[in-house]
Amino acid sequence: MSFRKDFLWGGATAANQYEGGYLSGGKGLATLDAITGGSKDQPRMITFKTKDGEIKEVTREEALPVGAVGYVDPDKYYPSHVATDFYHHYEEDIALFAEMGFKCFRMSISWARICPKGTDEINEAGLAFYDAVFDELLKYGIEPVVTINHFDIPMYLADELDGWNNRKTVDYFIFFCETIFKRYKDKVKYWMTFNEINFLRSWTQIGIHQNDNQHRYQAIHHLFVASAKAVILGHEINPDFQIGMMVAYIPSYPMTSNPEDVMAALEFNRGQEFFIDVQVKGTYPAHKLKWFEREKIVIQKEADDDEILKKGTVDYIGFSYYMSTASSANPENVKYVGGNQQPAVKNPYLEESEWGWTVDPLGLRISLCKLYDRYQIPLFIVENGFGAVDVVKEDGSIDDDYRIDYFKKHIAAMKDAVTLDGVDLIGYTPWGCIDLVSAGTGEMKKRYGFIYVDLDDHGNGTLERSRKKSFYWYKDVIATNGENLD
Ligand code: BGP
Known about the structure:
Oligomer: single chain
Number of strands: 19
Helix content: 25-40%
CATH class: Alpha Beta
Strand content: 15-25%
Shape: globular
Radius of gyration: 21 Å
Structural class: alpha/beta
Bound molecules: 6-O-phosphono-beta-D-galactopyranose
Strand order of the largest sheet: 1-5-6-7-8-10-16-17
CATH topology: TIM Barrel
């Protein structure tokens, strides 16, 4: 058998894209509640109020003015508010996951549902909601895999404290962790701290109002300290906890064998491996410290930060893998295509999805090898998948053969990494196992699920769930522990 007997087959979601119920049951506002939908050609916009009370909007890449606060405009549509409504459908959805044979289910806890302002005020109804969800999962023998924070922050912390730029946010986050660790210590074993930590740079994700490198890396330092403290605390509360980190892994190939292109690829890859180095090895890599020096970035640390980072290293590396990119020393020589949160370089050897993401199954094996060779701790693929437009036929069926084809090739690549390369892979949770809102574009049109949800880009639809062709295919993959991919 290729995959270990207890391999964690499942699926992945995130509260801000799936849960909905944005003000139900005492939940507070989160930054993501103030970001509109968009598309491939139209960016999502953050709506906010300036200090003088003016209502304005900016893209996520732009910084919000200092002192500006998130604002929900009653005339606009915000996809997170209902999302695909896990809040009211969790029993039905979990029954469908159980029917597919899921061994685990990755979801995130909404910080603003537990602590509406992000401070030390607790919302019992929020805790009770996740109790009900975990109980429902455990009823079917499905192991919850919990992302503590996926791409958002309570709006109050963002606007009153400047989010992760403020050291106090570390303390509030640890209070949140302590609350959920203690409450769910007998229900949840697998945790990961911050989703795609290498992509955190905007107000919506980390609540910062200035996103130049000085502010961004100070906020990132706070995230590292918070993650390490969470690992230490979690292990104290329950030594059986497995607490991982989560990075978006996009391997970059040199565009040519010109050593300058090889160096460019090395630098690109370092950009993301830096986040893994700190959380797995517990220290900042030398190249980053040199870069800080050159860029005159000064990180404010507290006396015991280095010790905390060293002590709070993670148990496993969780990562998303969708695509690869390429690097060239001469950017004028390359063409750009779409990509996860940032454009990627067109690779003539690879095809792309409708959203321009390269499709590169061998890149997954390469990533697994690189990560395992370098870090030697268990790996968990916590996101992978193919965003596509699905067509519902007259009889209600959906033939998503393109998705099956994508998964087939990626699971075959995982199998090679395990059987030929000896990688210690503990699980696989394809992204958006049930249709949900796209993080990048805010669309529903870009679907990833094995389960279809009737909802369009403007919030119209019955929210009814139905099984796609890939549902039955994945069920068979799980039943045979990945042996039968046809
Ligand atoms: C990752 C995120 C997810 C998810 C996925 C797909 O960046 O962790 O939240 O959405 O990518 O991206 P998109 O939704 O933009 O297609």
